[in-house]
Amino acid sequence: MKKVLDKLNWRYATKVFNPSKNVSKEDLNILLEAARLSASSYGLQPYHFFVIEDNEVRSKLRKASWNQSQITDASYLLVLANKPTFDDSLVDNYIDNIIETRGVSKKDLEGYSQMMKSTLLGLPDAQKNSWTSDQTYIALGNLMTIAAEMEIDTCPMEGFDKAQYNEILGLNDKNLSASVVLAVGYRADDDETQNYPKVRYSKEQIITHI
């Protein structure tokens, strides 16, 4: 357990990546599998993950990210996109997946299906968007933790123009919207922020036992 905490203390939001040191495809696939295995509310996974490798696309995204160098200098740029709205098919597709994966009947899942639909489908669009966006942050946390375990650097980023990202990546036509971005790579030796003491509230300030 101490090793896990050591890795979490080692990680930081990398500000300068080494563009000449690349994360291997094998390690990338481990990170993506960690994202795929992440928990989500009801298990619905109302999102999609984009791995941006194309240099031209990343240059455009950098301009839509206030010219932050992480966008182009990291080995990979992951865009976690949520479904801003949804209908019955979100639940129906999940139910079909359960049936195929677990070999149960549709009748066995009718109650669960109706419960999810009655809870979710009546939400206003703004609340649907907020809820599905929240789910991407669970996957984001998993990605960052597993990356730290592998001593791969990351930088979570919210500083970007979502409308421009959606246009550049063609997300609107897919009923998706960029929620949060994660740059993945290796820190540059001259990134001074890696030496900054980690600033967190004490356990006494942030944790209450009841």
TrEMBL record:
It holds the Pfam family Nitroreductase. Keywords: Flavoprotein, FMN, NADP, Oxidoreductase. It comes from the Bacteria. The keyword Chaperone does not apply. InterPro entries: NfsB-like, Nitroreductase, Nitroreductase-like. One of its GO terms (molecular function) is oxidoreductase activity. Its cofactor is FMN. Residues 9-186 form the Nitroreductase domain. PANTHER family: NAD(P)H NITROREDUCTASE YDGI-RELATED (PTHR43673), NITROREDUCTASE (PTHR43673:SF2). Belongs to the nitroreductase family. This is Nitroreductase. It comes from Maribacter orientalis. The lineage of its organism: Bacteria, Pseudomonadati, Bacteroidota, Flavobacteriia, Flavobacteriales.
